[in-house]
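May I ask for a protein sequence together with how it folds?
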Amino acid sequence: MTASLYEFFYHGLTLKMVGLVIGAALLIGHVFAFLKFESVKAWLIKLPRNETIGIGILAIAFAFTLLVWSEMDLGEFFNIERPVQIVLIVGFFLVAHYVKEFLAVRAIGFLLILAAGPVLAACFLQPPVTRLFLVALAYAWIIKGMFWVGMPYLMRDQIAWVTADAKRWKLLTLAGAAYGAVVLVCAIAFY
């Protein structure tokens, strides 16, 4: 079962599927955030220190990491597959128990870094130049994810900056919705 799931994420996703899903998610999420400023603002402010959400996202990230490690071709390192699987499982429980500070931010950072892999795999060697909208987004996820894992207080500061001014919030949510619409149009028209 895990082999077919790995195969789906890294070889089964088409550029069109990825473009449709990411474009729709960006468009819907940013339009919702634009329309529901106060409720989304309150939720976002609590997000960095929300331990329940942090453990849930961390579990998804570690499960995805375990899937990738268990199914990828390790070449000459195949003999360390089982020990690393055990380290990953134990590592999840240790991180969930001992890394309470900004756990949600770190978990989101892990997940962003991992989510970029299937997106980049779907874009690899595809002819339309518009695929670069997805490539740029994936690399932005990687960079943002690395900073949020290493310096999680940055997410808190970024949320505070974005939510401090309603005009700034509207401008950024409209920009995100526009990016999602462009990706969605490209997915329908070119991919």
Notes: Residues 2-189 form one domain. The two ends are 29 Å apart (CA to CA). The longest helix spans residues 166-189. The mean pLDDT is 93.
